[in-house]
């Protein structure tokens, strides 16, 4: 038998669910609409849509100060992309401002504004993860191919990271595991992250050459093809090799100036199949 007190609790719970349903539906419709309206501005619109569908169409980052999210960790990762051989211009820097984020968290702002920031941050982190895993200009796994769906699903890994207590580690783990890659990555972190803060003068040419070889190793990791490296790091020492195929200049230009390159130039660069060692 159900007691009177239990009936009262069940009634209140049912009433709460009924009252909450319109808000949930409105929030779901808002997020779906913002994704649709910003589709051309998103790097991975299909991946972003899948993420929010799997997330129950909830905001992933923007919440009151009393609610714990990984938003600050995500923003700090985007601040440090150069340590991974990437550039900040690729991750919505104009939209993802700290002042705007503080305003959205600390003040009452329209839900659509919060959803727009939330979605842009999700898109930026998904691109960051795909760039770490596949590389930015993978000749086999293009952005469109990845966005349609592939073996590695950044949106799924991101959801796992958001629901974990070790957000940054999960993001880091999408990178190649090879010794060659780890050696360059660790040295890049040392040069860009630590030594630059101690006023060391780090040659930009060295940083860029490390970045393009990290890019090649990401290609090798995902395509299974061998690559011709022009730089390695062994026991903390940088070793340069001859650019036999003369690809360094073109690849560097594409990595650092993608938005300024014509589609035909990018197509030509991507069509340069990975030369065998």
Walk me through the structure:
The chain is an all-alpha fold and 277 residues long. It has 2 domains: 1-175, no CATH class; 178-277, no CATH class. It has 12 helices and 2 strands; from the N terminus they run ααααααααααββαα. The chain has helices spanning 4-37, 45-54, 71-79, 98-106, 111-134, 143-148, 154-162, 167-172, 179-195, 204-223, 248-256, 263-271; strands at residues 231-234, 237-240. Strand 1 (231-234) and strand 2 form a beta hairpin. Residues 15-21 have low confidence and may be disordered.
* Overall average residue pLDDT: 87
Strand order of the largest sheet: 1-2
What is the molecular shape?
elongated
- Distinct helical segment count: 12
Termini Cα gap: 77 Å
Number of strands: 2
What tags apply to this protein structure?
mainly alpha; two-stranded antiparallel ribbon; 2 strands; 277 residues
Question: What's the helix and strand layout?
Answer:
Blueprint: H1 4-37, H2 45-54, H3 71-79, H4 98-106, H5 111-134, H6 143-148, H7 154-162, H8 167-172, H9 179-195, H10 204-223, E1 231-234, E2 237-240, H11 248-256, H12 263-271
Antiparallel strand pairs: 1-2
Helix pairs in contact: 1-2, 1-5, 2-5, 2-7, 5-10, 9-10, 10-11
Question: What can be said about this structure in brief?
Answer:
This protein has about 280 residues and is an all-alpha fold. It has helices at about 5-35, 45-55, 70-80, 100-105, 110-135, 145-150, 155-160, 165-170, 180-195, 205-225, 250-255, 265-270; strands at about 230-235, 235-240.
